Amino acid sequence: MSRSPDESPGSFEEKLERIDTIVRELESGTVTLDRAIELFKEGKALAAQCEALLKSSQAQIDAAMGPSTGSD
Amino acid sequence: MISLAPGTVIRTVSEFTNGLARWFTNQSAFQGAAISGEISGLKEVTGGHLAFVLKDSAAVLNCIVWQSKVTRLPPLQNGDAAIAVGSVRLRPEQSSYQMIVDTVHLTGVGELYARFNALKEKFRLEGLFDPKRKRQIPRYARRIALISAPSSKASDDFLSTIQTQVPFVEVEFLPTRVQGAGAEVDIREAFDRAEKLEVDAIVLTRGGGTYEDLFTFNEEVVVRAIARSRHPVITAIGHQTDHHLADDAADATYGTPSKAAEAIAAPWIATRERIAGAIRNLRRAAEDALGRRGQRLALVRSQLEGAMRQRAGNAERTLAALERRLSFQNPAARLSQRAQRFAASGRMGTVREPACEPAAAGGNAPGGARSASAARARVCIDLPRRRAGAFGRRRACRRCDFRPAWSRNARRERRSGA
Fold it and tell me: Which residues of B touch A23 (CB under 8 A)?
C-alpha cells in the first residue's frame, strides 16, 4: 500500500499510542501554547490516518470474503 | 369379403378366453396341483398378497398367495426348493395363467442358493472377505469409475446425486451389461478398463431385480475382479435388503446407488460447511477487531480535543488574569481611582478606609481644636488595631501617612508640637 508523503510511519496501534502521549503532554500543562497547537495538529493528523487505516482494513476484509459469503 | 371354412364359428376375444378359462377350471389336473421348483422373485404385492415365481431350468410359473393364507406359509426365501399346492387359473385380461397357491412345502435349498453358499464358503476360506483386506475409500474422492448398465435407473441415480451434491467430482462411466448370460464377464472387462484409469474408487451398481438377475453379483468372475482391483471398490446392488458376494468382497457397500453417491459426497459437504463456518467466524473476528479499534480511536480523539480545549482555556484564563493585573497598575487608572475615592469620601463623610484622607479626617473630627495629626489619628485608629499593625515597619498608614498615636514618630511629633 502506498503512503501519502505526510503520513507518519507505524501501525495503527503505534499511531494511537502516539496520540495518547500527545494527550498526556497537553494535559500536563507544561508545554507552550505554540507547542500545544503543534502537538494537537499532529494528533489530529494521526487520528485521520487511523480512520483511513480502519476504512481500508474493512475494504480488505470485504474483498477477501468475496460477495457470496455474506448471506450464507 | 371374408372367406372362412364352412362351419367356422366366429367368437369375440372375451367369448373365446372365457371359454378357455372355463375349460381350465374344469380340468382336475389343474385343481389341487402340486408343482415343485425353486422360489424366486418373492415380493409382497398390493393388498398384502405374496407373489413369487416357481421355476426350474427351463420354465417359470407365476404364483400368488392370497393375503388370508400368507400367515400359514413357512418362511420363504428366494432360492428355496419348494412344492407349491394350489389351482391354476387363466387370467383372461392378461392372456396368461397363474397358480393360486394354498400351501407351500419347503423341500430344501434351491440350486442357486446352494451355489451361493458353496461360493461363499470357498471365498471365505481364501480370505477374500477378510475385514483386514478392506481398503479405505479416500475421504475426498475426486475421480470415480462407475460400472453400471447404460441408461439404467441405478446409474442415473448415482450420477444425478453426484451432479447435485458434488458436481466437481469426475465420474468415468464404464457402461456394461449387468444381467443375463455372460454379464459377469462384461463386468470383469469393465473392471479391467477401470484398472487403467487413475481414479480414487470404483463404484459397481445396479438397481433391484430378481434373485436370478442379481445372481451375477455372486459369480466368481465378478467377486475375483473386485478382490484384485487396485482401486478401492464400492458396491450398491439391488435393494437395501439384498446381499451378494460382491458386497462381501468390496471395500464398502451401500444399499442403493444414491446412498453410495451420498457417501462419496458427504466428506466434501461436511468440509464445505466447516469452511463456510470458519469464514463466517473469521469475518466476525476481523470486524470485531476493527470495531474495537474504531472505539479506541474515537475515545483517543475526544481526549485529544478535550486536552487541547483545556490547554487553550488555561492560556485564556492566564491572559485574562495578567490583563487584569496590568490594568490595575495603569497610572491613569490609579489616578482616577483615587479621584473617585476622594469624591466619595467628600460626599459621604465617615467611611472606613478613605477616612484616612487628611481633609476628610479634619472635616469630620469632633472637637476641631485638636491637631490635624490627632484628628487624623482618631479617624484612622477607627481601623481595628490589628490592621493598624499592618502598617509595617514604616509605622504609618500608606495612604494618609497617619502614624498611630503609639508609634514613636507620633509621640515625637506630639512632643515637639506641644
Answer: 300, 303-304, 307
Alpha-carbon distance A46 to nearest alpha carbon in chain B (angstroms): 10
Site of grid cell 493598624: B388
Domains of chain B: residue spans and CATH = 13-109 (2.40.50.140), 127-267 (3.40.50.10550), 335-417 (no CATH)
Q: What angle do CA B320, B326, B332 make, to 5 degrees?
A: 130
d(C-alpha B193, C-alpha B200), whole Å = 14
Hey, where are the domains in chain A? Answer: 12-63
- In the predicted model, what is the mean pLDDT of residues B400-405? 57
Higher pLDDT, residue A16 or B352: A16
- Tell me how far apart the terminal alpha carbons of chain B are, to the nearest angstrom: 191
Contact B314 A29 (CB under 8 A): yes
State the ipTM, two decimals.
0.82
DSSP A16-65: HHHHHHHHHHHHHT-S-HHHHHHHHHHHHHHHHHHHHHHHHHHHHHHHHH
C-alpha grid cell for residue A9? 510511519
